[in-house]
Amino acid sequence: xxxxxxxxxxxxxxxxxxxxxxxxxxxxxxxxxxxxxxxxxxxxxxxxxxxxxxxxxxxxxxxxxxxxxxxxxxxxxxxxxxxxxxxxxxxxxxxxxxxxxxxxxxxxxxxxxxxxx
Length: 117
Prior knowledge:
Elements (H helix, E strand, L loop, with lengths): L1 H16 L44 H28 L7 H7 L14
């Protein structure tokens, strides 16, 4: 049994004796990483349109009410398009077609389908 254990002990003790020296820590290197900072423009304050619906009185005939509602819808759609144009001017410029498609609004006021019969 000593013949079996003795070589094992010798191998284990020599393994610790010839261990590689510890690696010294490297010299730290300072690296400057550029960070992109977005520059946003301040959108102008848009004036609220005067809505024809505000001029209605309780005694207004139904035909005038319908005309006022229709004119109000047209004015509000125009105001939304104007707002979208102003906001598009403040967006980050797209460099690729994929970015342009991602930045495009998903539903436009023209495409919503709510004004169709």
